[in-house]
Amino acid sequence: MTYKEINEKRNLEVQRFVNKLTRKVYEKFVNKRPCPVCESENNKAAFTKEGFDHVICLNCKMFFTPNFFKKTVLNDFYNGEYYNKTWQFKSKYDISLKFKRKYFTKIAKLIEKYKKPGSVLDIGCGTGDFLNVMKKRGWDTFGTELNSYARDFVKKKYNINTNNLDLEKFEPEKYDLISMSQLIEHIPNPKKLLLQAHRVLKNKGILFLAFPNRFGISIIIKGKNAGRFKGGEHINFFSKETITKLLNETGFKVKHTSSVKIDLYGLLRHLFKNIKKENNLKEITSQNKISIVEKKSVLKKIPGLLFYEILTPLCSKLVGIFGCGEDLIVIAEKK
């Protein structure tokens, strides 16, 4: 099964939660909430995607969905066919694995500027690639993950123990480092999660966060069509300001923030696709007389080494300078 086919299955699975007449998610599947940062109910509608309204808090400028899936629905979804196939695909055919390891190694080195190797808990550890990097660097590793296939994979491939317990079930002051990579955007009550992380961390323990950047380059260019907007899956969209506010209120001191990554291939495909629509497959300019089809074929012929190891890192550095990388990464210390 290809990744495209997996995403098609996801889209079909999502549609069963949406009323075809109103194009809104059925109320029986969701709960409602105020702003996850300041708890204000005063907000402004931005758009609706996959049945979920996306709004901006008029008090603190947090961008979020006021509706979120009930826990029983989420548990079924994260252990359903789409997520099982996704983890199977990533664990067996992910051609970007070496790039992920390179990225996680950079993250590990950054973390170790603030904390020497000790005990680490990775919440939402997926297939364990980050934990494996940390294990090789001398950290005592443990992870949590909702999906059972991913948990089994982590144990078999890396011999790292995991469970699917909520953070509130863990002992207090147990870990030197807690990692949450691509997690907090899924959580209905991120304030509660951060308070629990504060409780479980040792004194002066470190919290590492990585999540979609509210002002990332893909969101800026694609708007509501950006892949980061995923209906009931991604419900929080933090900026540097809103995450800093929430961390301060939950007992953390921010030590580092930066924006990283760029989906260069996805952005180029998006731009070429829009040009194709506007020009209806005509020549782009009278000077070069290159058609859209020819331009797309040129994109496909760019050598992988040049594209992924030279062009993409260069563009990633550029968007990082301007604060519009796809992800924000934050390192905070327990006060």
Describe the fold and architecture:
By secondary structure, the chain is α/β, with parallel strands linked by helices. It folds into 3 domains: 3-68, no CATH class; 71-262 and 328-334, 3-Layer(aba) Sandwich (Rossmann fold); 264-312, no CATH class. Helices cover 41% and strands 21% of the residues. It is built from 12 helices and 13 strands. It has helices at residues 3-15, 71-78, 81-93, 97-111, 129-136, 148-158, 190-200, 217-222, 240-249, 264-279, 292-301, 304-321, and strands at 30-32, 43-49, 52-57, 63-64, 67-69, 119-123, 140-144, 162-163, 175-181, 201-212, 236-237, 252-260, 327-334. It has a 7-stranded mixed sheet with strand order 8-7-6-9-10-13-12, with helices on both faces. Strand 6, helix 5 and strand 7 form a beta-alpha-beta unit. Helix 1 packs antiparallel against helix 3, helix 3 runs parallel beside helix 6 (148-158) and helix 10 (264-279) runs antiparallel to helix 11. It is globular. The termini are far apart. The model is unreliable at 280-299 (pLDDT under 50).
Q: How many extended strands? A: 13
- CATH homologous superfamily title of the largest domain: Vaccinia Virus protein VP39
Structural class: alpha/beta
Distance between the termini: 47 Å
Tally of helical runs: 12
Low-confidence regions: 280-299
Output mean pLDDT: 87
Shape: globular
Rg is: 21 Å
Helix content: 40-55%
Strand order of the largest sheet: 8-7-6-9-10-13-12
Reported for the largest beta sheet, the result is: 7 strands, mixed
The CATH topology of the largest domain is what?
Answer: Rossmann fold
CATH class of the largest domain: Alpha Beta
Whole-number count of domains: 3
Q: What is the element string, with H for helices and E for strands?
A: HEEEEEHHHEHEHEEHEHEHEHHHE
Query: Under the CATH scheme, which architecture of the largest domain would be assigned?
Result: 3-Layer(aba) Sandwich
Taken as a percent bin, the fraction of beta residues is 15-25%
